[in-house]
Amino acid sequence: MRLTDTENSIKVETKYLAELYRQLLQQKKAAKKYAAKFWFIFLIAVILIIYYPFISKFHPLLNLLTFLAFAATFAIAFYQLKLTNDLKFQLIKIDAKYFAMTNKHLTGTK
Q: Is position 4 within any domain?
């Protein structure tokens, strides 16, 4: 039995969507690993705040370092949130398109 052009193109597109979905899942895992930087910088900022009262000579420097550490922490956190949300929306869009074509979900491959 030969596949028609429509059936063949649907088969090719479903394979493409499945592969794209798998790649986006890998990117999502990598983005979660990136979040470790957030906790490291946050820990540095907390340590600076804890030792602040004990180091009276370097208050201006500690103020600057604490501000920079918290600024970097929140910048990384918001970037991480945006990145993971974009990836989730792309995964949902791909899964919806795949479901429309095959009546099966790709989410079982997580």
A: no
Nearest to 45 by CA among 62, 70, 63, 71: 70
User: Burial code of 40-52, b = ≥16 C-beta within 10 A, e = fewer?
Assistant: ebbebbeebeeee
Give the angle subtended at the CA of 84 by the CAs of 80 and 89, to the nearest 5°: 150
Q: Dihedral through CA 84, CA 68, CA 40, CA 79, nearest 10? A: 0
Number of domains in the chain: 1
Which residue segment(s) compose the domain that 22 sits in?
9-109
The pTM score is 0.64
Taking only the tens place, the pLDDT of each residue in 57-69 is 778 888 888 888 8
Domain-embedded: residue 2: no
